[in-house]
Structures are given as structure tokens and as C-alpha cells.
Amino acid sequence: MKTLQKTILALATGSLLTVGANAAVNYGNGYTGQPYVGAKIGQFDLDIDNADDPTAYGVYAGYNFDPNFGMEVEYVGSDDADYRGGDIDAKTYGAYGTYRYAFPNTGLYAKGKLGVAKTEVEASNTVAGLYDGSDDDTNLAGGVGLGYAVNSDFSVEAEYDMLGSDADLMTVGAQLKF
């Protein structure tokens, strides 16, 4: 990732957290909105023949407006995976609305998200006639997951995200709430 992109991502994440922390509002039901940040690791599932699926790693930030509804932004990148004598690399940027359903008295919750994701895939190889170049698509994206609230400030989650016609993403991660 280029230095300018990293800087913009860091500034946007910091701004979201600052706005979220300052925008904590009591919604009249005793719930005050809650910002959070997290990290995840997993694997991309790319629709490219004869390519290994790259390992994914990412960061995300969000804000729960009430116990069920919220919003989330994320960046997920990958390592270079083998592709017939070359490499394949993927990354995605997403913005989602989220919904959580907490299972009573367990700490477990189900999570759904729906939004927009931009997915970029770059491949290079030394064998003529194979895919060599880049592709980037912005699509409707969504995901489902299962989480466990260890306590009121820390959760772990497993997710499956559909990023469009060419890529899916499976991750496990942890988040810290403020």
C-alpha cells in the first residue's frame, strides 16, 4: 500500500473514532452509543483459476448506535500468494451498516452487515497467456458472522463476507469497545 493511502486510512480511522467518542448520545433507553476498533485475519477466496488464496489481514472501526444497529468501515489487505510462477495480491475497502442479535444470557451474538466494498486484485506471472494485471470493482457487499462478548469492552468474531462476484473473505478477529 502506498504511503499516501496508509496516511489517509490512518487519518480517516482516527477521525471516525474521535467523532464517535464525542458523539456518544443517550438514546432515551439507557443506551449510549459505543465506538469500537478491531483487527482481523483470515483468507480471501478469489475466483481466479489456479491461484492460491492469499492470507488476509485487516483493521476496522465502527459505531453502535444502539445494541442492535451500527455502522462499520474496514480495510483488509493480503500477502502475496502464488499464482503460476508469480504473485497475486488482494485488498478491499468497505463501508457497512450492521445489525447484531444478542442471544439472551450467553454473550453470543449473530452479526449481519450490508454495504459497499471496493476490491482490488493484482496479479503478475512469468508464463505468457495467463492473467497479468489488475482488476478493481466496487460492488454491493455483505457478510454474516458470529461473535462472543468476553466482557462489555472486548469481543471476538468470526465472519464470512461476500465482496462481489470475484471475491469472498473469511476472517476471525477481535474488537475493543470504548
UniProtKB/TrEMBL annotation:
User: Does the UniProt entry include the keyword Disulfide bond?
Assistant: no
Residue ranges constituting the Outer membrane protein beta-barrel domain according to the UniProt record:
16-162
Answer yes or no on keyword Signal. Answer: yes
> Looking at the record's lineage, which domain of life comes first?
Bacteria
Q: Where is the signal peptide?
A: 1-23
Fetch the SUPFAM superfamilies from UniProt: OMPA-like
Q: Which keywords does this chain's UniProt record carry? A: Signal
**In its UniProt entry, what is this protein called?**
Cell envelope biogenesis protein OmpA
Which organism encodes this protein? Psychrobacter piscatorii
